[in-house]
Design a protein that fits this description.
4-stranded antiparallel beta sheet; 755 residues; 3-stranded antiparallel beta sheet
């Protein structure tokens, strides 16, 4: 190790040349970064819900959905209906839209009976202009089971245009084309848009917006902290350059290996800013403390490099391990965050030591002012009082810590689990407003697909098969958050009713299989063919129903999923069911998050415990080193429980980030304490010495961390906002634990300081 440190000290030109070349390579990687806004790649391919979704798509086709909502006082007026027709026709012309699978109040299939039989065709053949005809049309729609709650709301103030999109479409193109249509046709009606391409582009724009806003703000805050800490150009510029290089190298590495930016991995630039900011701060603080006594820059540089190499290397390795434990999650974006962040931490360690040491050599002939950090009497007084209080009140500190720990554990039992996709966006976001409108007026904008499968061909024509589907859907509608459904049963019932003069007693499934077969044949030959193809497969063995939901609460989705599976298992002889759709992807993540979180916590704490025990050559040191950050992490999760926050994709990463960064405090503190004890062999004197050296760095470090993460409060995603203040809370707890708890623990357990 000594030869390695000597190489750093003696070859500054060579090192700077390598750093410049590496920066150019990683800078090229930045140009290859892309965003990932779809959730479909988040789960393992072997997951049962993924397999089911792919099977349903193989049978009925893989199609994304686009929803346009139109709201006004009464949609049944000539102006609004004509506008709906025009919007529908323009949507059909968008490349990627399946033109015969676009449905609105104007074009939706309608079944009417007459003397010669049945007609299946568009609900509105021509838009009436007089009030009497418009009112008749309205009354007809409100009494039509195939339209009400599916296409129009019961108060006739809201209607939807539903379109399907073929695979391989360009999201941005669809988003821009639909946005342009809505902008041109808005007013006086309120027009909303949502669906798969809209949601994905809103996530995409949100990620890019966060990067444009949060990163520059965090960099400005960091500059201010460096100025507050050092009050010199060198003390500000050198660690700030480390931060910039760290972000470029990490994000460039991400681009080179082909990982994409997601809502979760969009936090990496700020994460690297905080970590690299800490490393640069610790190195410069040590340099200035030595420089205050040793006026020769070269000597101070060499001494700082030798003293800080091992602590920064150790913190880098432990932080990387803590973050890398995120790979135990089976959720892709969390795994990628762990891999990229771990690699970024190791790159940051290289930059911090190699770059700063080499640049200080470049500045060897300049007159560098001494930093205000060393002479800050107020900070010196505060830190020495904290150290004295901890040593004088060890029992009080342990009692308070135990109480906090017990309350935190109780709070953890109250943590909810699961994602809420629409909860990613704040209340004022257009997508959130759109979801609220669809939930209130038209049975929701989220969905689960149910595929009903018979045990032989033509099963769909079997009355028993249809009766069991009808029973399952009736049971599904007993859940308050189930909005609307449209199934082959609705078609058959409607046709049977219309063939019998519209009598309600015939609004049922016929007893004859041949009669059902005739109805389905007529429906397939008339009206909109895309409507039929979305319902029944080629062999008439399977049918699909899309269940719209007004709830985004995964507890509701989980209850519904298992209840429906159990109901079908216990009550059906002719039907088997499988569930797919976008909601099932989010639901599948729940188990991975719960199991992954447990494994992640145990692995992160266990590995770092072993590593610290090995480095300090004592299991007692290892246990003491992880105590503050373990308690701080438990406290943060306890706060989450008391505030009703959920453990989901974003908040699941808090522990690893907290442990990965918080262990830095412990390593710097314990390393400094062992060094002071080797000199003084008196715990009280040693603690005061630590407080005036590494204690200052830890204090400024936590300020850097908290202000770095607190900018997440300005994110466009609510989970990212939560990450910001929750990790800040963890950092504050780890800092207070290090400064207050360590002296008490070392005094009580009478740990040996022999090295």
């Amino acid at each position: 190790m000594k030869k390695f440190i000597d190489f750093i000290i003696k070859n500054p030109r060579f090192i700077l040349s390598i750093i410049i070349i590496a920066t150019l390579i990683f800078g090229y990687g930045l140009t290859k970064l892309e965003t990932q806004n779809s959730w479909e790649s988040e789960l393992p391919k072997h997951d049962p819900k993924v397999v089911t979704k792919e099977r349903i798509e193989e049978i009925f086709g893989k199609k994304d959905i686009l929803l346009i909502g139109i709201e006004t006082d009464n949609i049944f007026n000539y102006h609004t209906l004509h506008k709906i027709k025009n919007i529908e026709e323009e949507i059909k012309l968008i490349h990627g839209i399946i033109s015969d699978e676009v449905v609105s109040i104007v074009s939706v299939n309608n079944i009417t009976g007459h003397e010669d039989g049945l007609d299946v065709g568009s609900f509105i053949q021509s838009i009436p202009e007089d009030e009497i005809s418009l009112n008749e049309l309205k009354n007809s729609a409100l009494q039509n089971e195939m339209i009400i709650d599916r296409i129009i709301s019961r108060d006739a103030t809201f209607t939807a245009i539903v379109a399907h999109i073929e695979q391989g479409y360009i999201e941005e193109y669809i988003y821009d084309e639909v946005s342009d249509i809505i902008q041109r046709y808005s007013g006086p009606e309120r027009i909303y848009m949502t669906g798969d391409p809209i949601q994905q582009k809103e996530i995409d724009y949100g990620i890019k917006g966060d990067l444009r806003t949060l990163l520059p703000l965090a960099l400005l805050i960091l500059l201010g902290i460096y100025f507050f800490a050092f009050r010199t150009k060198t003390g500000v510029i050198l660690p700030f350059c480390v931060v910039l290089l760290s972000i470029i190298w990490t994000m460039g590495f991400m681009g080179l290996v082909g990982f994409k930016m997601t809502v979760v991995t969009s936090t990496i630039p700020i994460l690297m800013l905080v970590i690299s900011g800490s490393y640069g701060l610790h190195f410069m603080a040590k340099f200035y403390m030595i420089y205050s006594k040793e006026t020769n820059i070269i000597n101070a540089r060499e001494a700082a490099t030798k003293l800080m190499f091992n602590p920064i290397m150790l913190t880098g390795v432990t932080s990387a391990i803590g973050l890398f434990t995120l790979v135990v999650f089976k959720v892709t974006s969390i795994q990628e965050l762990g891999i990229i962040a771990a690699a970024g931490v190791l790159l940051t360690f290289i930059i911090s030591i190699f770059f700063i040491s080499s640049l200080l050599w470049v500045l060897r002939n300049r007159n560098i002012r001494k930093s205000a950090l060393v002479t800050n009497s107020s900070l010196n007084s505060l830190l020495t009082r904290i150290g004295s209080f901890s040593l004088s009140n060890t029992k009080t500190i342990l009692v308070i810590t135990t109480i906090i720990l017990l309350i935190s554990i109780y709070g953890i039992t109250k943590i909810g689990i699961g994602n809420n996709f629409i909860g990613y966006f704040p209340q004022e976001h257009p997508l959130r407003i759109t979801y609220d409108a669809f939930n209130e007026k038209l049975g929701g904008a989220r969905y689960i697909d149910i595929m009903f499968e018979g045990f032989e061909e033509d099963a769909v024509k079997n009355p028993d098969f249809l009766h069991e589907i009808d029973d399952i859907l009736r049971y599904a509608h007993s859940f308050p958050f189930v909005g609307n459904t449209f199934s082959v049963v609705d078609v058959v019932k409607r046709m049977n009713k219309e063939l019998h003069e519209g009598l309600d007693e015939y609004n049922r499934i016929p007893d004859s299989q041949s009669e059902i077969a005739q109805y389905l044949f007529l429906y397939s030959m008339s009206g909109n063919p895309g409507d039929f193809n979305a319902l029944i497969d080629y062999d008439y063995q399977r049918t699909k129903v899309r269940v719209m939901l007004t709830s985004s609460d995964q507890e509701d989705h989980k209850e519904f999923y298992y209840a429906l599976i159990n109901y079908a298992h216990n009550n059906c002889e002719h039907v088997s069911i499988e569930l797919g759709g976008e909601v099932m992807f989010w639901l599948a993540q729940v188990d991975y998050i719960v199991h992954g979180k447990i494994q992640n916590i145990l692995l992160a704490i266990g590995v770092i415990l072993i590593l610290c025990s090995f480095v300090f050559r004592s299991i007692t040191y290892g246990i003491i080193s992880i105590a503050p950050l373990t308690i701080a992490s438990l406290f943060t999760f306890g706060v989450m429980g008391f505030l009703g926050l959920r453990l989901e994709t974003a908040t699941a990463i808090i522990t690893s980030i907290g442990i990965g960064i918080g262990i830095d405090f412990a390593i710097h503190y314990i390393t400094a304490l062992r060094r002071e004890m080797a000199i003084h062999n008196d715990l009280s004197i040693a603690v005061q010495g630590v407080m005036l050296t590494s204690g200052k760095s830890i204090f400024l470090d936590v300020i850097t961390n908290m202000f770095g993460f607190i900018v997440f409060l300005l994110s466009g995603f609510i989970p990212v906002q939560q990450i910001g203040w929750l990790i800040s809370l963890t950092m504050l707890g780890a800092c207070l634990g290090s400064l207050c708890l360590f002296p008490a623990l070392f005094k009580i357990f009478k740990v040996s300081f022999k090295q």
